């Protein structure tokens, strides 16, 4: 089963990457264009070694940027480790995936097994932006 999520886009008018460090500021405008993420299991069946090593495969694809990167996700430490890439890596997207998994982990505090069972078949994530971008 695939899950599709979207978020409104924005345009950074001033500030660039400097806004990531304090006390720098920037100006951001919201726009009608949206970003989409399609998330589905990477494999139909679990790989036997996934249970033993507590690792899950993650494939991150950005068709508009002609990028595809494979990762290993440590289910114990919730960290992504790149395995292969068709282009340069995008640390902002990598952090977004790690933070989303960490948020799910924190939300399911008493039911960690459910999250692990969802992650073990791997994640196939496709990110798309509206053509206006």
UniProtKB/TrEMBL annotation:
Molecular function GO terms recorded: phosphomevalonate kinase activity
Broad class of enzyme this protein falls into: transferase
Any one GO BP annotation for this protein: farnesyl diphosphate biosynthetic process, mevalonate pathway
Pathway the protein contributes to: Isoprenoid biosynthesis; isopentenyl diphosphate biosynthesis via mevalonate pathway; isopentenyl diphosphate from (R)-mevalonate: step 2/3
Stored InterPro entries: Phosphomevalonate_kinase (IPR035102), Ribosomal_Su5_D2-typ_SF (IPR020568), Ribsml_uS5_D2-typ_fold_subgr (IPR014721)
Enzyme Commission number: 2.7.4.2
Domain of life the protein comes from: Eukaryota
Coiled-coil ranges (or none): none
GO cellular component, one term: peroxisome
Name of the protein this chain belongs to: phosphomevalonate kinase
Organism per entry: Anisodus acutangulus
């Amino acid at each position: 089963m695939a899950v599709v999520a979207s978020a409104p886009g924005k345009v950074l008018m001033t500030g660039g990457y400097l806004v990531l460090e304090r006390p720098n500021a920037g100006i951001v405008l919201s726009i009608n264009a949206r970003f989409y993420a399609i998330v589905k299991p990477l494999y139909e069946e679990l790989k036997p070694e996934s249970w033993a090593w507590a690792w899950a495969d993650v494939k991150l694809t950005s068709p508009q940027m002609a990028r595809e990167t494979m990762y290993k996700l440590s289910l114990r430490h919730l960290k992504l480790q790149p395995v292969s890439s068709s282009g340069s890596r995008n640390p902002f997207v990598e952090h977004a995936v790690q933070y989303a998994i960490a948020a799910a982990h924190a939300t399911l505090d008493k039911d960690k097994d459910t999250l692990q069972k969802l992650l073990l078949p791997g994640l196939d994530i496709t990110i798309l932006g509206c053509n206006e971008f």
